[in-house]
Amino acid sequence: MTQQGTLIVLSGFSGAGKGTVVKELLSRYDNYALSVSATTRKPREGEVDGREYFFKSREEFLQMIEKNMLIEYAEYVNNYYGTPKEYVIKQLEAGKNIILEIEIQGALNIKKQFPDAILMFITPPDGRELEKRLYGRGTEDDATVRARLKRAYEEADYAGSYDYIVVNDDLDECVSTINSIIESEKYRASKKLSLIQNIKKDLERFN
Ligand code: 5GP
Fold first, then answer.
1. Is 14 close to ligand 1, i.e. is its CB under 6 Å away?
2. What is the pLDDT of residues 38-96, one digit of tens each?
3. Of 17, 53, 152, 170, which is least packed with CB atoms within 10 Å of its CB?
């Protein structure tokens, strides 16, 4: 049987560069899969339905909740975001490391349901850089950027609930660091106990 894949949750302040980090992880290594979320947010220029998100109306989203099609969902700055269940479960069973790029409430919810999930918080080196990136992106109006920065201020209190905090200053370094963390998780004792049990069985006759 293939070993179950690992659930990886990537969160971080809006503007931390999570999207770029995820793209780089997927292109550099072949054992990752990305979960595409559903959202009621309107597509930004260049975003494609089914690639960045499954774009849904509020009614459609509420139906997904009702039909139990989401592993988790949360409201973020006036929109709903949620993780479709079926794809995630299939990828885990196929032994893939699946990445959920989601905000904090969703991340904590995932950890409750999947205690082995690895929670990583991605952050820029400082607050000024965050402001610069959000305004520089130019995809949201001033009020939305301010709301996102306020949310970042509030989210800072939750970063301590994550397993790892990784700074995204140099993209290359950030991506390599994330990959090594995930690789080393394979050696966690709790994931190796079946190996030890087998060895114990082999040695039974000496007892
Ligand atoms: P954005 O509008 O910038 O694409 O995303 C806003 C926030 O929603 C980001 O912090 C992103 O990580 C989060 N997000 C995206 N998809 C999901 C999801 O399926 N569930 C949750 N809880 N948050 C999500």
1. yes
2. 999 999 999 999 999 999 999 999 999 999 999 999 999 899 999 999 999 999 999 88
3. 170
